Automatic annotation (TrEMBL):
The lineage of its organism: Bacteria, Pseudomonadati, Pseudomonadota, Gammaproteobacteria, Lysobacterales. Gene3D superfamilies: Winged helix-like DNA-binding domain superfamily/Winged helix DNA-binding domain. This is Transcriptional regulator OhrR. InterPro entries: HTH_MarR-typ, MarR/SlyA-like, Transc_reg_Sar_Rot_HTH, WH-like_DNA-bd_sf, WH_DNA-bd_sf. It comes from the Bacteria. It is found in: Cytoplasm. The gene is ohrR. Pfam families: Staph_reg_Sar_Rot (PF22381). PANTHER family: ORGANIC HYDROPEROXIDE RESISTANCE TRANSCRIPTIONAL REGULATOR (PTHR33164:SF5), TRANSCRIPTIONAL REGULATOR, MARR FAMILY (PTHR33164).
């Protein structure tokens, strides 16, 4: 088994807010969510609802726990979100016949149709990131995924 690399050493430990990786990630996430909020308003979705819909557009008929694993969310967070999507007519929730503790989430006809309207969202986000090429954005995404996996492994 490969030994984890030693953490990078800072020339001098600091508690300045702008020197913190967590704040750079947090503030970037807030800015990105603001861009998404504007684009998703046209679809009547919040950002977390959009994430759930993307999971379902990739693979319809999944359990709440499968959605939670994919999005790193617990069922207490997902349940009210899924109820709102159901009330909007985008999904249906049914108990699994084999195990009544499991709830199956399935796209409705309207939920499937919404995918066509959502096709432009990724492009809209890319346009909001001025000065970054597709290649640069792909590299940033890859680095963030690597960081996430490292934090999951070591956290």
């Amino acid at each position: 088994m490969k030994k984890p690399a030693a953490p990078a050493k800072s020339p001098q430990p600091t508690l300045l807010l702008d020197d913190q990786l967590c704040f750079a990630l947090y503030s970037t996430s807030l800015a990105l969510n603001k861009v998404y909020r504007k684009l998703l308003a046209k679809l009547g979705l919040t950002y977390p609802q959009y994430l759930v819909m993307m999971v379902l557009w990739e693979r319809d008929e999944v359990t709440v726990s499968e959605i939670g694993e994919r999005l790193f969310l617990d069922s207490a967070t997902l349940t009210p979100l899924l109820k709102r999507l159901e009330a909007a007519g985008l999904v249906t929730r049914t108990r699994a016949a084999s195990d009544e503790r499991q709830v199956i989430i399935e796209l409705s006809k309207s939920g499937r149709a919404l995918k066509t309207k959502a096709q432009g969202i990724p492009h809209g986000v890319s346009c909001a990131v001025e000065g970054c090429s597709y290649e640069q954005l792909a590299l940033i995404k890859q680095q963030l995924e690597s960081l996430r996996e490292s934090l999951i492994r070591n956290g």
